[in-house]
């Protein structure tokens, strides 16, 4: 569990990592970096959430049709399976 102190440090480290990425991005295409300035913080939040959801759902691509069907009708509860596997470690 993160404390208030470590949370701030983690946020700062994450921000620095993103800035490093943006510097590299800007070196490759300075014009594109300038265009990114027109995207609002709220738009970035929505984009990040969408990408996060895409990444979380990628696991579904490897499931069979039967597994997907059982998940979709609630016969199998993914959250319970995740909790069980997480508790194994």
Write a concise synopsis of the structure shown.
By secondary structure, the protein is mostly helical.
Outline the structure in words.
- The protein is mainly alpha-helical.
- The chain has helices spanning 4-28, 30-36, 41-57, 65-72, 78-88.
- Helix 1 (4-28) crosses helix 2.
- The chain is elongated and about 50 Å long.
- The mean pLDDT is 92.
The sequence of SSEs as H and E is HHHHH
Helical segment count:
5
Round the Cα radius of gyration to an integer and report it: 19 Å
Give the proportion of residues in helices: over 70%
Q: State which percent range the strand residues make up.
A: under 5%
Q: Give the beta-strand count.
A: 0
* Amino-to-carboxy terminus distance: 17 Å
| SSE class | mainly alpha
Largest sheet properties: none
Unreliable spans are none
The coarse silhouette is elongated
- Nearest-integer average pLDDT: 92
Short descriptors:
89 residues; 5 helices; elongated
Which SSEs are present, and which pair or pack?
Layout: H1 4-28, H2 30-36, H3 41-57, H4 65-72, H5 78-88
């Amino acid at each position: 569990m993160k404390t208030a102190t470590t949370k701030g440090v983690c946020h700062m480290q994450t921000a620095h990592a993103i800035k490093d990425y943006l510097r590299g991005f800007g070196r490759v295409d300075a014009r594109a970096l300038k265009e990114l300035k027109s995207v609002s913080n709220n738009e970035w939040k929505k984009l990040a959430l969408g990408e996060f959801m895409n990444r979380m759902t990628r696991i579904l691509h490897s499931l069979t049709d039967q597994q997907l069907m059982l998940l979709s009708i609630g016969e199998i509860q993914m959250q319970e399976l995740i909790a069980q596997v997480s508790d194994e470690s």
